[in-house]
């Protein structure tokens, strides 16, 4: 079998096959005869049905077989589905054929992940994939917006994803956290906010001082280990935060967008943070942590 990316198959008897690239997930198939290379026969296939009429990941009736996915299971989320996991969850592999899935406390996958066009994956807390992960053209990875209440409680939403093999972000796929940083008028010191009326948000540098000298909040954050959210402008949130740790190759042909929020005239938010660590960086994509535009 000569395949690129992660492959999902059903109902096969497989012997002596080498998938050559990333694993083939064959949850309803069996291994026979000679050994197979890069095939996974782990667990059961759990497909979201929404049978309970809710979006709760932990409700058994929302899954095929009326069983919540376990550590050895492959999860299938179909187009049009809305799934929310309030607690951290563990399962083997994730295939999103569409829809939206939110993991408020993150997840731990023992296998791999494939996110199809039109699907949106939201990770608000640190998450890990032991194998490889692919974001197809037209898919989105994001985190939830940060509001004053959750920030003051010490709960910061950010994308923090560790991948044990390779991560591919195809052309027209996006890691999008633009405008999801500190809210308008807010910065880490919780003083008078990141700005006063008429000033842009601060982060790695001072925001613009549109009203009077030194009216914006002080700069903050690290250029070597950037993890902070962008400061809000007087009217608009700053950019969110993305941390990607990839043991193998990160192929970025799409975009990582952590721009500050755009007000429409001025007083925009500061750019957020993007921190990438990988064995090899490849691709023709781009990373944007600019402050919000103004006209």
Task: Give me a quick take on this structure.
Helices cover 2% and strands 31% of the residues.
As residue ranges, the low-confidence spans are 1-5, 190-195
Q: Given the helix and strand composition, which structural class is it?
A: mainly beta
Q: What helical percentage do the residues reach?
A: under 10%
State the end-to-end distance: 53 Å
Radius of gyration: 21 Å
Percent strand equals: 25-35%
Number of helices: 1
E-strand count: 24
Shape: globular
Secondary-structure element pattern, one letter each:
EEEEEEEEEEEEEEEEEHEEEEEEE
> Could you give a short account of the major beta sheet?
12 strands, parallel
Average pLDDT: 84
List keywords for this structure.
single chain; 295 residues; mainly beta; twelve-stranded parallel beta sheet; seven-stranded parallel beta sheet; 1 helix; 24 strands; 2% helix; disordered N terminus
Q: Can you give a write-up of this model?
A:
It is a single chain. The protein contains one helix and 24 strands. Helix content is 2%, strand content 31%. It starts with 6 loop residues before the first strand and ends in a 7-residue tail after the last strand. It has one helix at residues 148-152, and strands spanning 7-8, 13-14, 24-25, 30-31, 39-40, 45-47, 74-77, 82-85, 89-91, 93-96, 100-103, 107-109, 113-115, 120-123, 127-129, 133-135, 140-142, 159-163, 167-169, 174-176, 241-252, 255-257, 273-282, 286-288. It is mostly beta strands. Strands 6, 7, 9, 10, 12, 13, 15, 16, 18, 19, 21 and 23 form a twelve-stranded parallel beta sheet that branches. Strands 8-11-14-17-20-22-24 form a seven-stranded parallel beta sheet, with no helix packed on it. A three-stranded parallel beta sheet has the order 1-3-5, with no helix packed on it.
């Amino acid at each position: 079998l000569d395949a690129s990316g992660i492959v999902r198959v059903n109902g096969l008897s497989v012997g002596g096959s080498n998938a050559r690239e990333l694993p083939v997930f064959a949850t309803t198939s069996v291994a026979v005869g000679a050994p197979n290379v890069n095939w996974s026969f782990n667990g059961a296939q759990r497909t979201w049905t929404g049978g309970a009429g809710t979006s709760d990941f932990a409700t058994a009736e929302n899954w095929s077989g009326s069983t919540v996915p376990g550590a050895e299971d492959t999860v299938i989320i179909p187009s049009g589905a809305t799934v929310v996991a309030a607690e951290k969850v563990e399962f083997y592999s994730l295939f999103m054929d569409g829809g939206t899935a939110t993991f408020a406390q993150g997840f731990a996958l023992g296998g791999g992940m494939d996110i199809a066009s039109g699907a949106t994956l939201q990770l608000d807390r640190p998450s890990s994939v032991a194998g490889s992960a692919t974001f197809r053209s037209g898919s989105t990875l994001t985190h939830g917006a940060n509001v004053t209440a959750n920030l003051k409680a010490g709960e910061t939403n950010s994308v923090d994803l560790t991948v044990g093999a390779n991560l591919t972000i195809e052309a027209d796929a996006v890691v999008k956290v633009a405008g999801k940083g500190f809210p308008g008028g807010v910065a880490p010191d919780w003083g008078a906010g990141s700005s006063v009326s008429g000033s842009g948000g601060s982060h790695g540098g001072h925001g613009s001082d549109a009203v009077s000298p030194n009216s914006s909040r002080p700069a903050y954050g690290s250029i070597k280990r950037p993890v902070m959210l962008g400061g809000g402008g007087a009217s608009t949130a700053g950019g969110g935060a993305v941390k990607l740790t990839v043991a193998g190759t990160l192929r970025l042909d799409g975009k990582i967008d952590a721009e500050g929020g755009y007000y429409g005239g001025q007083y925009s938010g500061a750019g957020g943070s993007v921190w990438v660590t990988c064995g090899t960086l490849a691709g023709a994509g781009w990373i944007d942590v600019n402050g919000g535009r103004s006209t």
